[in-house]
Specification:
CATH topology of the largest domain: TIM Barrel
Number of strands: 15
CATH superfamily of the largest domain: Enolase-like C-terminal domain
Strand content: 15-25%
Oligomer: single chain
CATH architecture of the largest domain: Alpha-Beta Barrel
Order of helices and strands: EEEHHHHEHEHEHEHEEHHEHEEEEE
Number of helices: 11
């Protein structure tokens, strides 16, 4: 087999602001694995928060190349991904891109979409939320109006303007809109008690990552006192993190670019279920290529936040993703992604 790649840039429709950063454009890496004249595709969506950039992705891909070159075919995925992990360590988004490309190639060689190879039923997928990043009140109203086709909004908080932001969005949103909140680790435990009580009064469904990832004592304090369920994101990278979250959270948020790809995501889903935790899957600012593997897994989720390609100005790929709030995958082999 042969591994190749190229970098590309995607731009956000609006500057994407959360409690710790603002993104107007991001560099992504398009990864391809070729065997016997067929190509599998994947996308690396690195985040500096997790120590990755497009440069570190390329460096990791260079180290993975000998493993791919030595493999005769992609079908031995479990052993192949173990060898890739041994070659580069974590490097979540780089591994996720190669894993997605290998799965895409296996599906194409079998002539089947991934959801069918996994024995899943796409119609059982939950609706996806649409993310509203931090901004000034008038811009927030514009964003809510643009998201009128989405019955679930995920609102970014984690600043001293939290009540102003949620109040503005509640006033602008259509009646019956479900609100979820992501604080991106922006609160302390004692602040979180008060802010979550305030959010409950606004009818918010749950709160994601209220505290810094390392604040385990804070999460233990918060769990059981919170007026709303707590979903952790930055605190949960791979399946090995999940047992330690029992008694600290009500659910986890999986991202392929954190965990290393669809294979580890599947392990995370089953591990979380074994511990009685709810399961959500999210994304970064990504193209449809980056979203596609998560879309194929979506029927295993309680909650979905797979709007990354909806937040960018121009998508270089087309395929599985959102049609309004519904997650669609289709019957094309592998990931079912093509150039736009």
């Amino acid at each position: 087999m042969k591994l190749t790649w190229e970098t590309f840039t995607i731009r956000a429709k609006h500057p994407f602001k959360i409690s710790r950063s603002v993104q107007e454009s991001v560099e992504r890496v398009w990864v391809r694995v070729e065997a016997d004249g067929q190509e599998g595709w994947g996308e690396a969506d690195p985040s500096p928060y997790y120590g990755e950039t497009s440069g570190t992705v390329v460096a990791a891909l260079e180290r993975m190349t000998p493993v791919i070159d030595a493999a005769p075919a992609p079908e031995g995925l479990e052993m192949l991904e173990r060898a890739l992990a041994g070659a580069i360590g974590h490097n979540g988004s780089a591994r996720a891109a190669v894993s997605a490309a290998l799965h895409d190639l296996v599906g194409k060689r079998a002539g089947q979409p991934l959801w069918k190879l996994w024995g899943l039923e796409p119609s059982e997928a939950p609706l996806s939320s649409f993310t509203i990043g931090l901004d000034e009140p008038e811009v927030l109203k514009t964003k809510v109006a643009e998201a009128a086709g989405y019955p679930i909004l995920k609102v970014k908080l984690g600043t001293d303007r939290d009540e102003e932001v949620i109040s503005t969005i509640c006033d602008a949103a259509a009646p019956g809109t479900v609100l979820r909140v992501d604080a991106n680790a922006g609160w302390t435990a004692r602040d979180a008690i008060e802010r979550i009580a305030m959010l409950a009064d606004y009818g918010v469904e749950f709160v994601e990552q209220p505290l810094p990832p390392a604040d385990r004592e804070g999460y233990r304090f918060l769990h059981g006192r919170s007026a709303l369920p707590i979903i952790v994101d930055e605190s949960c990278i791979t399946s090995s993190d999940i047992p330690g979250l029992v008694g600290m959270a009500d659910g986890i948020n999986i991202k392929l670019s954190k965990c290393g790809g669809p294979r580890e995501a599947m392990r995370m889903i089953h591990t979380a279920r074994a511990f009685g935790l709810r399961v959500m899957m999210g994304c970064m600012l990504e193209s449809s290529l980056g979203i596609a593997p998560a879309a194929h897994l979506a029927s295993l989720l309680d909650y979905a936040d797979l709007d990354g390609a909806e937040l960018i100005a121009s998508d270089p790929f087309a395929g599985p993703g959102l049609r309004g709030a519904e997650i669609h995958v289709g019957d094309e082999p592998g990931l079912g992604v093509r150039r736009a």
